[in-house]
Amino acid sequence: MSLRLSTVILPYRRWNEGSRESWQRAEQLGFHTGFTYDHLSWRTFRDGPWFGAVPTLTAAAAVTERMRLGTLVTSPNFRHPVTLAKELISLDDVSDGRVTLGIGAGGTGFDATALGQESWTPRERADRFGEFVPLLDRLLTEDSVSYKGDFYSAHEARNIPGCVQRPRLPFAVAATGPRGLKLAARYGQAWVTTGDPKLFENGTPEQSVHAIRGQVDKLADACAAIGRDAAGIDKILLTGFTPDRGRPLESLGAFVDFAGRHQELGFTDLVIHWPIPDSDFAADEKIFEQIAMEAPTQLR
To answer: pLDDT tens digit string along 39-72?
Structure first.
């Protein structure tokens, strides 16, 4: 199977000051999906401009025609399944069925406390995620949903007419732990990883490949436990967070080598960050565009 190449465009620019052009150019370059982060703010961008994911993707849907659109990733940190479902159904409608929801358990960053709550423990994040995903699945597939859980509730929540994509828009579940992988196996049309974060600072590319291979194996085990073939789940690597860092974007050859090693692990999709000057995602724009246009052909 050919490796698909996608990009993630961070929402740090005003729409009419470069953001619109990036989304349109991404489609022209042939990217399979244009993703954006779904955060209230993020790391070094916290004190600068940062825009909402769903409005940004809605605007992107209006100026593109073919490229899929999605979040990497949405989390329960500041979302509720009932309101999120309504936004996603609306976005899926505006885009004529081009939306993929990347979804994860969330972390301890700025989003975790922006609503005034204490940061959740890893166990609570997993507990909430385990309730969030099944409820969101129901909200996107049923006309009316009532539910009362430990963390989330819905009372006769209406979602008519539902998604353009049937039975609902696809979920790309970000997970590396056992509980998250079970959710990916049961509800995911795709699975997302950034690699092993413990290796980012001092690990080697070889150690990273070994660790990611282990994650792929654990996903297969989670699928086997419910009688599902893991080959039916797309596998997405969000790049930039392995020990390779930005080196794969230094040349077409470097990227093809990096991508080929992960394609051998069973990955169907690689996501690269749209270049941002003077940031962790700085890259030569000409090389970036060369990779977008030529790498997929070399990876068939």
So the answer is: 999 999 999 999 999 999 999 999 999 999 999 9
Predicted confidence at residue 109, as pLDDT, reads: 87
**Do residues 164 and 69 make contact, with C-beta atoms less than 8 angstroms apart?**
no
Task: Return the beta strands (E) in 51-159 as ranges.
Answer: 68-74, 99-103, 144-148, 153-158
Q: Give me the pLDDT at residue 1, please.
A: 65
Rounded-to-integer distance, Cα 221 and Cα 218, Å:
5
Using a 10 angstrom Cβ sphere, with 0-12 exposed, 13-18 middle and 19 or more buried, the burial of residue 99 is buried
CA distances (Å), 264 to each of 3, 199, 233, 300, in order? 10, 20, 15, 12
Give the pLDDT confidence score for residue 300 in this predicted structure: 87
| Rounded distance between C-alpha atoms, residue 221 and residue 225, angstroms | 6
Using CA of residue 262, residue 242, residue 270, residue 138, what is the dihedral sign? positive
Residue 117 structure tokens: 């709550």
Determine the 3-state secondary structure of 265 from DSSP. Answer: coil
* 64: phi then psi, degrees, rounded to nearest 5: -130, 165
Structure tokens at 106: 């969330």
Percent of the chain with pLDDT over 90: 98
Q: Which residues of the chain have pLDDT under 70?
A: 1
| C-alpha separations of 89 from 71, 102, 211 in Å | 14, 15, 36
